[in-house]
Amino acid sequence: MNRSVFLLLLAAILCGVAGQFCLKAGAKILGPIGAANLMEKVVAMATQPLIVGGLSLYAVSSIGFIVVLSRANLSIVSPLLSISYLFTVLGGKLIFHEPLPPLRLVGVGLIMTGVIFVLKGQAGGVTGGN
Fold this sequence. Notes:
With 130 residues, the chain is mainly α. Helices cover 77% and strands 0% of the residues.
C-alpha cells in the first residue's frame, strides 16, 4: 500500500468516525428508543439533520474504502480500519464526556499494537507496493 492509498484510507476512516459522532449526537437529541416508540423515532431519524449527515458521512467513507480496496489487499486494509477505535474512544471522552476506564485504554492500546504489526508485516510498510 503506497502512501497516497494509506492517506485515502485514513480519510475514509475519519469520515466514518465523524459519521459515528453525528449519529451519536442525533441519537441524543432523539432520546431513548424502544419498542413502544420505534415507528415514531424512525420517522424522526429520517428528518434529524445530524443523523442524515452521519449517514452521508458513512456513504462517503464507504466510497473511499471501496477506492482503497481497488488498490490494496483486503487482508491489510480491513485490519487497519480498527484505527477508528482510537478516534471513537477519544472522541467519546472529549466530545460526549463518556467514561474512559484504564482497562479500555489498555484494550485500545493492544488494538493499535495490532495495527502496527499489520503495517510492519506487509512488504515495504506503508509506502510499499500493492
